[in-house]
């Protein structure tokens, strides 16, 4: 393994899901729902396979139906207009979109500012691009993890090429406020930075509404926006993601993407085109269901003695284990299956500043109510 990748080892999600399977534990670690998305969308995928839609290589940028549906979604929810032919690219999940964007836009040695804790593929992809990550740490303040705008400003140097943002934010559940987004946009314009925004949890904002960064003044022309069907439609295994960006940036990302997978998920692309057009009731019910589950798990974790950071978005809750007399989240998560049959994710793997994340542990609540109830009952016996 080369020096760029050697530090990354095996992703924590694989380690913890394997641990859950081996021990028969309740898996609140890796973020995937235990109930599939709408049956009509599964049927659309099956129909696509059986009628020969997408069984052979679809067009590299994605099937026209899905590119049109993504553009229509950006218009419908955010009033943003993107040309499906020149400004939309379909990818193998958000993961490929992140990789392609970073590989296409970074020169070796460029600095990338990323909010810490960061989703684990960010650091690996920045490294694969030969670039340097510069973390800006979200810190606990009044029950949430917040961005210090002065720290963000101070992190920009003449070598900074790109801001890599994620809102709603995994793993903290932070949703950047309109004032924070405005400050980020102002900084990006002032220092002429590109912005890559990972908005895969755009439909999981529990208080307030999601604001795409591309909608702020001066941002459309410098923003590569990434999202995915995995979270919104509960089909994480289909790996259908997308990028919206102005033509020049989109073309750059496409140049990298064509040599990563060329194209993926043919029949599923047609099904997700239908999913994006589902009525508002689908999106509202999805959010309401997860709001109730957030509250169930947050209250249960608090009752079990954890310090709980109730998320404003995503399907994850970050807790601090210090009140339980524990210090090290990684050791805690590795021992938890044996102690009570539950699996979680240690946030420290998403930090360069290991001390900042040492005692934090993340729990996924995209699970059946009875599964969450059983997990809470087990954790209360800790
Ligand atoms: N970004 C974030 C913040 C995520 O949490 C995830 C995955 N869960 C991804 C990207 C990857 O999404 P996909 O499964 O579509 O590749
Ligand atoms: N994004 C999911 C999470 O944060 C996991 C995705 C993966 O396994 N790579 O749990």
TrEMBL record:
It is an enzyme of class 2 (transferase). This is Probable N-succinyldiaminopimelate aminotransferase DapC. It holds the Pfam family Aminotran_1_2. Belongs to the class-III pyridoxal-phosphate-dependent aminotransferase family. Transmembrane segments: none annotated. One of its GO terms (molecular function) is succinyldiaminopimelate transaminase activity. One of its GO terms (biological process) is amino acid biosynthetic process. Residues 26-379 form the Aminotransferase class I/classII large domain. Gene3D superfamilies: Aspartate Aminotransferase, domain 1 (3.90.1150.10), Type I PLP-dependent aspartate aminotransferase-like (Major domain) (3.40.640.10). Its EC number is 2.6.1.17. GO terms for cellular component: cytoplasm. Involved in the lysine biosynthetic pathways. It catalyzes the transfer of an amino group from L-glutamate to N-succinyl-2-l-amino-6-oxoheptanedioate (N-succinyl-2-l-amino-6-ketopimelate) in a PLP-dependent reaction, yielding as products N-succinyl-l-2,6-diaminoheptanedioate (N-succinyl-diaminopimelate) and 2-oxoglutarate. Its cofactor is pyridoxal 5'-phosphate. It catalyses: N-succinyl-(2S,6S)-2,6-diaminopimelate + 2-oxoglutarate = (S)-2-succinylamino-6-oxoheptanedioate + L-glutamate. Homodimer. Keywords: Amino-acid biosynthesis, Aminotransferase, Cytoplasm, Pyridoxal phosphate, Transferase. The keyword Cytoplasm applies. InterPro entries: Aminotransferase_I/II_large, Kynurenine-oxoglutarate_AT, PyrdxlP-dep_Trfase, PyrdxlP-dep_Trfase_major, PyrdxlP-dep_Trfase_small. Signal peptide: none annotated.
């Amino acid at each position: 393994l080369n020096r760029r990748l050697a530090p990354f080892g095996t992703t924590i999600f694989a380690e913890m899901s394997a641990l859950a399977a081996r021990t028969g534990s309740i898996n609140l670690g890796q973020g995937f729902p235990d109930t599939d998305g709408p049956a009509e969308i599964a049927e659309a995928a099956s129909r696509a396979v059986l009628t020969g839609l997408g069984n052979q290589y679809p067009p590299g940028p994605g099937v026209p139906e899905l590119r049109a549906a993504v553009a229509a979604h950006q218009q419908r929810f955010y009033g943003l207009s993107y040309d499906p032919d020149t400004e939309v690219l379909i990818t193998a999940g958000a993961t490929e979109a992140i990789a392609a964007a970073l590989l296409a836009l970074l020169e070796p040695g460029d600095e990338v500012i990323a909010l810490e804790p960061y989703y684990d593929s960010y650091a690996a992809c920045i490294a694969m691009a030969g670039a340097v990550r510069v973390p800006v740490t979200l810190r606990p303040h009044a029950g949430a993890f917040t961005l210090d705008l002065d720290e963000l400003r101070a992190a920009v140097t003449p070598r900074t090429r790109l801001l890599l943002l994620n809102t709603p934010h995994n793993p903290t559940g932070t949703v950047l406020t309109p004032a924070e987004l405005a400050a980020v946009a102002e900084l990006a314009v002032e220092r002429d930075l590109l912005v890559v925004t990972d908005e895969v949890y755009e439909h999981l904002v529990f208080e307030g509404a999601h604001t795409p960064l591309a909608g702020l003044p001066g941002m459309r022309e410098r923003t590569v926006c990434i999202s995915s069907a995995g979270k919104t439609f509960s089909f994480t295994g289909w790996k259908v993601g997308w990028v919206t960006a102005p033509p020049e940036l989109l073309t750059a990302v496409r140049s990298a993407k064509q040599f990563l997978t060329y194209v993926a998920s043919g029949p599923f692309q047609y099904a997700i085109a239908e999913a994006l057009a589902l009525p508002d009731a689908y999106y509202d019910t999805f959010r309401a269901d997860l709001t109730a589950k957030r509250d169930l798990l947050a209250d249960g974790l608090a009752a079990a003695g954890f310090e709980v950071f109730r998320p404003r978005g995503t399907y994850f809750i970050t807790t601090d284990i210090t009140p339980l007399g524990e210090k090290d989240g990684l050791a805690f998560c590795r021992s938890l299956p044996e102690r009570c049959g539950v699996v979680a994710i240690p946030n420290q793997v998403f930090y360069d500043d290991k001390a900042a994340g040492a005692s934090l542990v993340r729990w996924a609540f995209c699970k059946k109510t009875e599964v969450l109830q059983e997990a809470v009952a087990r954790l209360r016996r800790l």
